[in-house]
Amino acid sequence: QLTHLQPTTKPDALPPDRSLTQGALKTLATKLDDLSTCNELIGKHGAALQRSLSELEDLRSPGDGADKLKTINERATLFRITSNAMINACRDFVDLAEAHTRRWQRALQYERDQRRHLEETIEQLAKQHNSLERAWRETPTRLMINPQKLTCIWDVDTSDDNEDVEFFDAMEDSTAFITVPASNHTQRGMTGTLPNNWCQEDNLIQSDSVSRRSHIPDKPNYSLNLWSIMKNCIGKELSKIPMPVNFNEPLSMLQRLTEDLEYSDLLDRAALCSSALQQLSLVAAFSVSSYSTTVHRTGKPFNPLLGETYELDRLQEYGYRSICEQVSHHPPAAAHHVTSQRGWTLWQEITIDSKFRGKYISIMPLGRIHLVFHSSGNHYVWSKVTSTVHNIIVGKLWIDQSGDIEIVNRRTKDTCHLKFSPYSYFSRDIPRKVTGVVADSDGVAHYILSGTWDGKMESAKIVESSRDCGGSEGKLKTVYQTLPPKLLWKKYPLPENAENMYFFSSLALTLNEPEEGMAPTDSRLRPDQRLMEAGLWDEANAQKQRLEEQQRLERRRREAQANLAVEESQEAEVYQPLWFEKRADSETGESSYVYRGGYWEAKEKQDWAQCPTIF
């Protein structure tokens, strides 16, 4: 049972009234004006007294002395009166300041107590929530919940009396269609109409074997109080929170972006498809596969420095070459370009928008991914879904993906709508579920996609569809009769001892492996990242602080130059990435960074003279 928690307030520790504070400030300002007036009078009378003394010294006739002495006495009296007034005003000011200082100290202490109590309340709630999670996972039947009745709550009763059931929100957006196997007669009628050369079991493209490393040093077991760091960061953007490497993994965000290519064979198979709809199904499976490596990856990648790059040359093994560059620091943005000899080109610009919300972190990738197949000219565009890291304060960290992906073929106008269902304790669906529908330009559905983003994706061809009432939910849904599903993609098993190597996949283990001839701005050359991988976390933290301070100084220098240029009515210098440039999208008009070329030519010549020094 949850404890009802409310911040307690002592009767003698009430928050300060705004009018009292303004009155105190006004009184102190008045006393300060009195002090200023007395100071001016003391200066004035002091100067007059000094002149009179000087005149007395210059007297030649004794008869004039009496008049001068009288003037001196008058001025000395005025000086004494003014000095006494100054002393009294100072005493009043000090007394008032001391009285109000005590009041403000009490108010400050009150705010500190309230903040401490709020932190304790949040931490206690987090522990209780974590206990409920464990209780539900261990003995879910004890709750005796009828999922059908919970579903009906959303469709029938919307009164204010049901505010206590808000935690069933995850079930609101249930699947809008139902799939059933087609009859044997229907399947026999479809025999011979479906090509078999695009599922995973067939048409696997073999690659030449290249020796790559298969392990890295085990992750050290360092303890650190996460709450002591994160409690002051609620509501801030994740990239602006100073973090020790204890919360990182030894890869940069550019390398994580390159990990999208883990299952590039899906695109190789898609390039051989004669059917645009089958090709779209494989593209959809590829878009889902990019999340498979994140299920256990709770470490934060290193924020790339401005101008940092990362190359991945896999021409010999997989037929592609990839180049990434950090094109902006605030907001953090990276541009990525991949060219494959197997018939496709992919590019993207991703800006990360992230917020820490107390118990979880939301990571929202902004930007579009473009994929073009050379032979057909099919141009696919889609965006990423939101990633959420849960149990930041207390409990075991876990990651969820949620949201929708709309993949559009700009040439044919075919679409694929994918839905990543958020995890719910009360859902009857399997965790990490992904469903989708592939439709042509007229909106007619041809394939149903289903699976999980951490396991596999399957495709089932639709042979018939009809509208029906969705059972207890009372909603009109489309019922699709489908042929048996075909496997499009299945996740590779993790390497041995992966739990001690940051849960890296086989590809991730090779991403930070040193190679010859790479640019001096490559992520593999980052000293903090390299030291962390070697298990030297203290040294890595020192290097991380040095690089971040160096980047801050460089940013201030550019801002100072820009301000100076504005003052002198000159054009300010704008940072330009080395390998990417902004171009407008021919269809939407939106500007994004695309590859301008030249990187691989520079690597072949080993001409890196234009690369900045960032490490």
Explain this structure.
GO terms for molecular function: cholesterol binding. The protein is 35% helix and 23% strand. The longest helix has 74 residues, at 65-138. The chain has helices at 18-57, 65-138, 147-155, 184-190, 226-230, 253-258, 265-271, 276-289, 315-318, 506-511, 527-533, 537-567, 599-605, and strands spanning 177-181, 248-252, 300-302, 309-314, 320-328, 333-340, 344-356, 360-366, 369-373, 379-382, 386-390, 398-409, 415-420, 433-439, 445-452, 456-469, 476-482, 486-490, 580-584, 591-595. The chain is an alpha+beta fold and 615 residues long. The model is unreliable at 1-15, 140-173, 188-195 and 201-205 (pLDDT under 50).
Give the tags.
single chain, 615 residues, alpha+beta, 6-stranded antiparallel beta barrel, two-stranded parallel ribbon, 13 helices, 20 strands, elongated, disordered N terminus
